[in-house]
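Researcher: Go.
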Amino acid sequence: MSAAGVVSASETYFFRLYLKDKGMNDFTLHEPERFLSLESVERRMLHEVFVDETDFPVSPVYLEELRAAGAIPRLTSKWMKTVVVECADSSDVERLMNMPFVDSLRCVWRCEDRIKPAKPLANDLSDIIIISDMFTDDTTGFPSADIPVEDIYGSARKQIEMLNGVRLHEAGYRGQGMRIAVIDAGFENADRIDAFSSLKLIGTKNITFPGHDVFREDHHGTKALSCLAADLTGVMRGAAPEASYLLIKSEDTRGEFPVEEDYWAAAVEYADSVGIDVISSSLGYFRFDSLPDYYTTDDTDGQTAFVSRIASVAASKGMLVVVSAGNEGVGAWSKITFPADARDILTVGSVTSDGEKSAFSSIGMTADYRIKPDVVALGTSVCVINSSGQTQFSNGTSFSAPTVAGMAACLWQAFPLLRNTELIELIKSSSSQHQTPDVQLGYGIPDIFKAYRTAGE
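Model: Structure:
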């Protein structure tokens, strides 16, 4: 697109630059530890996923040349060969478009004020990764088997039992050793809530507002995290209480702009680089402020939306990506949102306690006639922990997805040699309508313990 004449001096713009290549660097495939963590390399080796040139970062030389041209690089995607830059002058934009390594350009954000948090946030060590081997392997936080199930799980019993997850927990698989990234809008007060007192925290990352705390803005991620990691006997127990967690904020809650796809991409690439096994994300995109026709339902082919393409690449790197189907079931859009249409990921819709489709749950198929959602779980009246540390009952595929993600992590703990695609097929084949999938419920409600028994045969 041409940017001439669209940038005013009073506004700040973010542009996504699509590069012709990533430039020269001194990385080699023989030394992946120079650009990936040991955990990331080990995960790939375990699942026979090869490191390749898509894993090389964008050349810092390109970033310096962009700065010299009057732009401020804000985000990069090594997988998509893109750089998001901040500009405030039309002549800067023209220079960018004429740079030899820039293929094309798209505006993804604009505002009269420079990007800043919606409210003051306290600085913290949010980008520090805690070494995972600091955690012990004891399981003393899990009550003994003679405590009644309803006392162990509290008000969350229904959502775990619906997936037959209690039996998998009782078999000793509660996520221990699994590394889960939760990508969301924020995790307000999750660092001071009793239900998370035993949380095994790998670290945190604020993509949207670098250097700021992920625990002081937005409660949506707190609720989603509770479906996975809450562990307070008699109050709530999540699907994978013994897993280790990386919490990433990628959402700008002040509005909807395409740059949030870039934030999500950066979050996913970061999760991959530090060796995450499972990504749980309850974010979805389809319509943006001032750009209502940015996407159409014809784009739900897994290959068009930027965020969906990123999700598929993440899957190709060996991670299990679990996302919510969306809550557009009663709206004009009605279909799954992005990245729920991506290939080789697990897309989760919502049902009521009776197993009926929740009215709000987005439906399929994809534009290229694939079954979506893949599976469903309880998403109507789901027990969650709010930012006040209290249980409440909430609705949304935002909460069915992390429950499935947590149970999938427990299943993967039991069979770590399974590839992510094999794990997805195992879960789908164990689900309630695996022989007759449809656009409402996909393959149905998973029976995680049945999947466990099948894999063990």
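Model: Residues 1-9, 120-146 have pLDDT under 50 and may be disordered.
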